[in-house]
Amino acid sequence: MQADIAKILFPREQIAQRVDDLAGEIVRAYDLETNADLVLVSILSGALIFTADLMRRLPQPMRIGLITVSAYRGATTESRGARVLRELDVDVTDRHVLLVDDILDTGGTLRLVRERLLLARPRSLRTCVLLRKPSKAPIDLPVDFVGFDIDNEFVVGYGLDYNDLYRNLPDIGVLKKELYSC
Ligand code: IMP
Ligand code: MG
Fold first, then answer.
1. Which of 61, 109, 141, 149 has the smallest number of Cβ neighbours within 10 A?
2. Ligand 1: which of 49, 105, 130, 182 to mutate, most ligand atoms within 8 Å of CB?
3. Where are the alpha helices (DSSP H) in 12-161?
4. Cβ atoms of residues 101 and 129 within 8 Å
5. 105 lines ligand 1 (CB under 6 A)
6. In the CATH scheme, what architecture does the domain 2-177 have?
7. Which ligand is nearest to the CA of 158?
8. Annotated catalytic, 53?
C-alpha cells in the first residue's frame, strides 16, 4: 500500500497536531449552554477516521449522527454528483449540528447534506472539513473549520479512498499517477 504513494503530504503526527488545534477552535466556538444539544454529523465513509479522532478531543457532551454519501467515484478521481446511500440516523431538530467531512472538493457532497439537515431545522449548523481544495471550493458554501488547504491533487489515507482502498493508511498522501484513471 505504501508503495502506491508518490509522496506523503501530511504525516500522522502533523494530522494529530492539527486535529488538536481544530478541536480547540471548535470548543471555543460553542459556548457551554449549547453543549448538551450538540450533534456531530459525520459523512461516511471518508470522515470516519477524522471524526473518531476529533470527537475524542472534544470534552463537551454530544451525540453522533451518521450519514453515508457516495460521490460516485469508483475507479475514477472525478466527482460525478453526490448521492445519499444511508440516511441520517439521529434527530437534529432544534439541536446544534457540527457537520464533519474529510475533504471539500466541488462541494456537491456538503451541499447535499446541508440541504437535508436544514429541512430538519437544527438550531445551528456549522461545518468542519479536514482538507479543502481551494481552487474548486464554491464560495457560496460556508465552512467554519478547515484543517489544511491543499492543491488540486488526488489524496488518499486517513479515511480518504481511491476505489474504496487506502482508507486505513495512517498518513495522507498523493497516489501515484499511473495507479488511477481520471
Ligand atoms: P465533493 O462532493 O466534490 O466536494 O467531493 C467530496 C467527496 O469526494 C469527499 O467527501 C471525498 O469522499 C471525495 N473526494 C474528493 N476529493 C478527494 C481526494 O482527493 N481523495 C479522495 N477522495 C476525495
Ligand atoms: Mg467522502
1. 61
2. 105
3. 12-29, 48-55, 108-119
4. yes
5. yes
6. 3-Layer(aba) Sandwich (3.40)
7. 1
8. no
Closest ligand 1 atom, residue 81 Cα: 2
Pocket test for ligand 1, best of 79, 114, 152 (most atoms within 8 A of CB): 79
Q: Which of 164, 64, 146, 65 is nearest to 103 (CA)?
A: 146
DSSP label of 157: B
Selecting among 94, 102, 105, 151, the annotated active-site residue is 105
Per-residue pLDDT of the chain (182 residues; tens, 9 = 90+): 888 999 999 999 999 999 999 999 999 998 765 667 899 999 999 999 999 999 999 998 999 999 999 986 666 676 667 899 999 999 999 999 999 999 999 899 999 999 999 999 999 999 999 999 976 656 778 899 999 999 999 999 999 999 999 999 999 999 998 887 76
pTM of the predicted model, to two decimals? 0.93
Q: Which ligand is nearest to the CA of 73?
A: 1
3-class SS letters over 33-74: HHHHHEEEEEEECCCHHHHHHHHCCCCCCCEEEEEEEECCCC
User: From edge to edge, which strands make up the β-sheet containing 83-86?
Assistant: 83-86, 63-70, 38-44, 96-104, 124-132, 145-149
